[in-house]
Design brief:
Layout lengths: L20 E3 L10 H6 L5 E4 L4 H6 L4 E4 L3 E4 L2 E7 L5 H7 L3 E6 L6 E3 L7 H10 L3 E5 L15 H10 L4 E5 L11 H10 L6 E2 L8
Parallel strand pairs: 1-2, 2-3, 7-8, 8-9, 9-10
Antiparallel strand pairs: 4-5, 5-6, 6-7
Amino acid sequence: MRNDSPSQIPFTVKSWLKPDAVLLTHLHPDHWDQAAVEALDKSLLILCQPGEEAAVRKVGFTDVTEVHESLTYKGTMIFRTTGQHGTGKIGRLMGQVSGYVFKAEGEPALYIAGDTIWCEDVKRVLDEHHPEYTLVNAGGAKFIEGGTIIMNEDDVVSLCRYAPYTKIAAIHMEAINHCFTTRADLKGRIDAEHLTDQVRIPLDGEWF
């Protein structure tokens, strides 16, 4: 594990913390932490994966819906997808994780892959939904034992080769101390593979 501190967001929480709804991929603390629980309005709509409604309600949220397959929210279709949060024993211990595909009339489809490595689940989503944009957690996180539990530079390249039509934004990098793939690592690999037109690596707080 690295000893450096997490990245700092270059604006205050209050400046953006008025969402229409919150979509949870899973409840691991690097995605759903105590600070978020305390800061969010408890009447806010929370969409979560199957089996986690009770845990979200337990901390005070009153409008919680599990997304089993799909639902429509304000004219946008939201499809829940599956992933693989590691392999072997580590993967089993990490438990269920979800991603989501967003589709709205007249808008490009967006796939948020969530905490997953490159695997058959991801391939199936790409084949079924053919998203114009794909958001991947690409920090190459891993523990002392076992392989990576989210995508690394090899996985991102594999995704690019498999689905050259989708524009990729690589995030969840340099944010927690067991992420070993840095922005510089990924940029170097993407440059070497001549994939710079397909992959964007945003800075902390960058909008695009």
